[in-house]
Amino acid sequence: MTMGETEAQPAHIPGKTEYATVTFANIDVSYYFRLDGGGQDFGQDYLRAVRTLPTKPKRVFEWCSGPAFIGFSMLAHGLCDSLCLADVNPEAVEACRYTVKKNNLGDRVSVYHSDNLDGIPKSEKWDLVVSNPPHSGTNRIIREWGNNPLIYMDNEWQLHRRFWRRVKQNLNPSGVVLIQENSNLSRVSDFSRMIENNGMRIAFVGDLGPPYSEVAIYYIGAVREEDASTMRGIGLAQQW
Q1: Quick check: is 227 in a domain?
Q2: Is residue 27 part of a domain?
Q3: Residue 230, Cβ neighbours under 10 Å: how many?
Q4: CA distance linking residue 16 with residue 216, whole number of Å
Q5: Which residues are CB-neighbours of 144 under 8 A, at least 6 positions away?
Q6: Crossing angle, helix 188-196 and helix 158-166, to 10 degrees?
Q7: Residue 72, SS3?
Q8: CA separation for the pair 53, 30 (Å, rounded)
Q9: Alpha-carbon span 213 to 171, nearest angstrom
Q10: Tens of pLDDT along the chain (240 residues)?
Q11: pTM
Q12: What CA–CA distances, in Å, run from 159 to 28, 73, 107, 144, 191?
């Protein structure tokens, strides 16, 4: 188990199928097993990575949140003050909202049912964006793994393209976008043009730390173009 985590336990919700529950510090996160794309496993490396940033982010957005294992864990461990969560899957959104209600987090967490960033108001402003998004730009992983395509599939990287086209509008000055990608399924060059064509710059690329060092996941960190000269190479060891 990862830091701050307990074994998943079923939680009965009247009139619905059972949620499982995983606890991060003082927050009980409700989810369906089919919604877990790795957020409660290697996604927990964010607890290490975010601590390397020069300032604590006040408001964090988890893109493609699923049940928001990453965001709720960060909030539970005091790595941010408030959260914004969004997912296109209504099951994931329902689970997030249940977690918010169950833990009395309504004044600290906003949840959006949104197709990418389309349903999020431009008034939402974030200091940090995190995500374990779909990692495959083809349908190969679906045929081999037979799992939920909303978790793993991003056809020709269209989801990523739309994200990078919009995210700068919601990013505070000196804000950071820190995304987990899969080195077996992508290269940094797959994303560099879509990042740089939308007023952003890659500031760093880095691997996960122990105990996830051998996992084929890496970080891409990006900042606004106007912040690039002061933010380049911060935090993670491997500079772009």
Answers
A1: yes
A2: no
A3: 11
A4: 36
A5: none
A6: 40
A7: helix
A8: 29
A9: 29
A10: 333 333 344 443 434 568 999 999 999 999 998 888 889 999 999 999 999 998 999 999 999 999 999 999 999 999 999 999 999 999 999 999 999 999 999 999 999 999 999 999 999 999 999 999 887 656 665 555 556 666 666 778 899 999 999 999 999 999 999 999 999 888 999 999 999 999 999 999 999 999 998 889 999 999 999 998 876 655 554 443
A11: 0.88
A12: 29, 25, 30, 21, 11
Residue whose structure tokens are 């990453």: 70
CATH number of 162's domain: 3.40.50.150
What is the sign, positive or negative, of the torsion defined by CA atoms of 75, 210, 34, 190? Answer: positive
Pairing of strands 109-113, 126-131: unpaired
Domain range for 184? 38-231
> Does residue 23 lie within any of the structural domains?
no
Q: Report how many domains make up the chain.
A: 1
d(CA 97, CA 106) in angstroms, rounded, equals 9
Instruction: Answer for the pair 212, 42: CB distance below 8 angstroms, yes or no.
Output: yes
pLDDT of residue 136: 66
> Which amino acid makes up residue 42?
F
- Cα–Cα distance, 19 to 32 (Å, whole number): 5
For residue 81, being part of any structural domain is answered with yes
C-beta separation of 159 from 133 below 8 A: yes
